[in-house]
Amino acid sequence: MTKQDAVESADARPALLLAWYDRHRRRLPWRPPAGERADPYRVWLSEIMLQQTGVKTVGPYFEKFLARWPDVASLGRASLDDVLRMWAGLGYYSRARNLHACAVAVLRDHGGLFPDTEEGLRSLPGIGPYTASAIAAIAFDIRTMPVDGNIERVVSRLYAVEDPLPQAKPKIQQLAATLLADCRAGDSAQALMDLGSSVCTPKKPACALCPLNEGCAARMRGDAETFPRKAPKKSGTLRRGAAFIVTRGDELLVRSRPEKGLLGGMTEVPGSDWLAAQDDKAALKQAPALNGIARWHRKAGVVTHVFTHFPLELVIYTAKVPARTRAPDDMRWVPIATLDSEALPNVMRKAIAHGLGE
Ligand code: SF4
After folding, report:
1. 284 near 315, Cβ under 8 Å?
2. CA–CA separation, 244 vs 49, rounded Å?
3. Domain limit, last residue, from 171, 199, 226
4. Which of 11, 70, 161, 317 has the most beta carbons within 10 angstroms of its beta carbon?
């Protein structure tokens, strides 16, 4: 390919991308039919859910939220507890708290309408630069390119970006912006996202089907799979702790986590601190007092869970207490049959399943 050809193929990319998108766009629950304007509420809700969670998992949650709260005003009037309960299982619970705070702010400060600028969107809880850019482009067709993992991959291959992530982000952002069409900014962004998800996949990209294959630097070099370059990962130190599964007939002893911090406000069974150097005896000393009547049994095996910053290993202790046993002040009994309606994070669901299992 001559230099002139390369320039011409680069100029044609935005149009090629849109033509491909018009034929191959993914059907997603939050996307309107082709040619219709996207609803800012749906775009925002999906973007918050898609932060750190895949499309397949998000789909049913999105539908559930939409059925219960069809617009931002109804979500803004909901209680935080109801929102946390509905969110249970999606993980990264600060998103649910911010989701609620954002709906309240849109209702209170913006008359129930999302601001239509990136700056206005960024002033809302839980909306950072990426999410603001995604909502601005997709819902309001503002000429901005939200760069997600899919777009990072496509662009780093297209231009064979050698810098590793995350340092390469500004460069990739700049290059990605050159793929925006003069109008239909939202479709340009979604086209790249879809291309990354279905054609320019992490393993074995289908370059023959790619509308940008002419002039793709990584395809020409034959090492597309090696992009994007990544700096070696540091994984957090393993932490250990104990969880206490106390039953009173058909009820389980639970409490709410502090509002601030990891899994803020979620429901949990009582437990010890989670420490790198956890000592079994010290962990058992943190069991709920229950007037000294609980006889603790340690279940065989451990429950493991991986948080973003550290992996966790929990040993499980169980105890059965008599019918009239009172819950300690900061705890409560809940029927085991209704646990599904509690805002239980996945790690607690695993601990309870292990503790109640045979
Ligand atoms: Fe990705 Fe291949 Fe398309 Fe290049 S040609 S952008 S590597 S699918």
Report:
1. no
2. 31
3. 226
4. 317
pLDDT of 2 higher than 70: no
Domain span at residue 321 reads 239-356
**Among the three residues 172, 196, 226, which one is the final residue of a domain in this structure?**
226
Q: How far apart are CA 35 and CA 37, in angstroms?
A: 7
End-to-end CA distance of the chain: 67
8-state DSSP, 241: E
Q: Are residues 124 and 204 in the same domain?
A: yes
Q: How far is the CA of 163 from the centre of ligand 1 (A)?
A: 18
- The whole-model pTM stands at 0.71
Give 154 Cα–ligand 1 centroid separation in angstroms.
6
Decide if 174 is inside a domain. yes
For ligand 1, mutation pick of 207, 209, 220, 223 (most atoms within 8 Å of CB):
207
Q: What is the residue with the minimal CA distance to atom 2 of ligand 1?
A: 207
CA 272 to ligand 1 center in whole angstroms: 49
* CA 140 / ligand 1 centre spacing (Å): 29
pLDDT tens digits, one per residue of 41-50: 999 999 999 9
Residues 44 and 185 both lie in one domain = yes
Taking only the tens place, the pLDDT of each residue in 135-165 is 999 999 999 999 999 999 999 999 999 999 9
* Mutational test site, ligand 1, from 200, 221, 226, max ligand atoms within 8 Å of CB: 200
> In the chain, which ranges are E strands?
239-248, 251-256, 267-268, 297-298, 303-306, 311-320, 331-335
pLDDT score, position 292: 85
Residues with CB under 6 Å of ligand 1 are 154, 157-158, 199-200, 205, 207, 210, 212-213, 216, 218-219, 224
